[in-house]
Amino acid sequence: MDEVEVIVAHRQCATLRVGDVFLKIDSDQRRSDVEVESMARAPIPTPRVLWRRPPVLALAALRGTALGRLGEPSTASRAAWRAAGAAARTLHDAPLPPWPGRSLDEIASRLDGECELLVTNGVLPADLVTRNREIAEAALRPRTPVFAHGDLQISHVFVDGDEITGVIDWTEAAPGDALYDLAVLTLGHEERLGDVIAGYGAPVDVDVIRAWWSLRSLLAIRWLFEHGFDPAAPGCEVDVLKARM
Length: 245
Known about the structure:
Helix 5 packs across helix 7 (206-226). The relative contact order is 0.17. Strand 2 and strand 3 form a beta hairpin. By secondary structure, this protein is an alpha+beta fold. The protein is globular. The protein is built from eight helices and ten strands. It has a single domain (63-242), classed as Aminoglycoside 3'-phosphotransferase, Chain: A, domain 2. The strands form three sheets. Strands 1-2-3-5-4 form a five-stranded antiparallel β-sheet. It has a three-stranded antiparallel β-sheet with strand order 6-8-9, with helices on one face. It has a two-stranded antiparallel ribbon with strand order 7-10. Helix content is 41%, strand content 18%.
């Protein structure tokens, strides 16, 4: 019998690997429903669903390795990063999923609440939060929604050489902002943004991507601390905020 490897585990969900099978255990079946339906609709490679017995979803492993990890240098080629940008464009050009995404008012309200908690609880200096909240404002503008992955971090994009072999973790997929996906993909790897944009093949507003870097980090930091992750590690979310000062 293969060893059981814990990929990630916290109060909301856990992912285990046994050989070439990933077992995702989620306390919220709505997220699992979204993941399965999104992978069925996505026009880019995704893991194959082997079986589903709530609360467990079994997925086949993808060929290759992750494009990179937040806080670590990426060894992937420039062509692989361009291919990731092209995959994002293909997804964004697909028909919208039928369920709603988050509204701008909802995002702004959550952002204000998180910023207040970060300062009140002494998690981050007030000037760091204030400056990044100002930058984040540029992301809260009217936009035409696309089929967005919603959590397109580099550890969710798998490559083999220069080829994208699949994208995982679709629980946040919904109609959303194309530039949010590009921002999450390049978070902490700003030097790769040019390659991603080249692969994307459409004009983008880089200032809005930078705004999403700030907004994403501000929203994530408290959750990460509370669930046993370290957003203050080198190259991670706190450093992303400091880079904007």
